[in-house]
């Protein structure tokens, strides 16, 4: 059985003190067996959070990284810097990176491979825009992004990463795909992995849904057979709401 993942993406929110306050309020309720709980915080907060997270099951992640270990890349952070903190997860290819910072499929591929090579778990984001959805291009876009991200990886590498289907039109909009629609696309994502490798590899990959996930709708997503958890934006900023998402995933594990 695939362990569910609830990953919070704080984006550009919370200074160091706010991050520590959040963790103090969240730690006990978020420290659940049977759930992989991850907080992806801004870079300045990560060193303090690594201290706060000691002795807990709560993992920490970055929101981006460069694929090179060092070099003349002003403003970037390398995988070796993250591992030295230590950090175990990193979000790769979020739509906000693709749209606002012109990250290409090739850059996502390089970052994914580098993260795996350095012992990090990449959370690789894929998803279509509203225009692409209305043009009935969802599968074409998602397939292209998935194939590009995993190209050249070993089977073991693919099973170690996490994929996140995040329709761009649902991120931060208050709108979300229906659980059935999300499950259908995620089933297609899994089939895409199977087409590139085999069904056993595809069955091992955790695939999350992201896009205006909150306590009011998390149960409907987790009830779907293909959805292995959520990559959460706004609802991860409040310790109470984020804890409720983790508790929902914990209940799902008990039911299974």
UniProtKB/TrEMBL annotation:
Catalysed reactions, as listed in the record: D-glyceraldehyde 3-phosphate = dihydroxyacetone phosphate
Binding positions for substrate per the UniProt entry: 9-11, 172, 212, 233-234
Localization: Cytoplasm
GO cellular component terms given for this protein: cytosol
Binding site for ATP: 191
CDD domains from the UniProt entry: TIM
Top-rank EC class of the record's enzyme: isomerase
Pathway(s) per entry: Carbohydrate biosynthesis; gluconeogenesis; Carbohydrate degradation; glycolysis; D-glyceraldehyde 3-phosphate from glycerone phosphate: step 1/1
EC number: 5.3.1.1
Coarse class of the protein's main subcellular location: cytoplasm
Active site: 94 (electrophile), 166 (proton acceptor)
InterPro entries: Aldolase_TIM (IPR013785), Protein_kinase_ATP_BS (IPR017441), TIM_sf (IPR035990), TrioseP_Isoase_bac/euk (IPR022896), Triosephosphate_isomerase (IPR000652), Triosephosphate_isomerase_AS (IPR020861)
A biological-process GO annotation: gluconeogenesis
PROSITE patterns assigned to the protein according to its UniProt record, in alphabetical order: PROTEIN_KINASE_ATP, TIM_1, TIM_2
Pfam family, one: TIM
One GO MF term: ATP binding
Keywords: ATP-binding, Cytoplasm, Gluconeogenesis, Glycolysis, Isomerase, Nucleotide-binding
Known partners and oligomeric status: Homodimer.
Family: Belongs to the triosephosphate isomerase family.
Biological function: Involved in the gluconeogenesis. Catalyzes stereospecifically the conversion of dihydroxyacetone phosphate (DHAP) to D-glyceraldehyde-3-phosphate (G3P).
Stated name of the protein: Triosephosphate isomerase
Record organism: Melghirimyces profundicolus
Protein encoded by which gene: tpiA
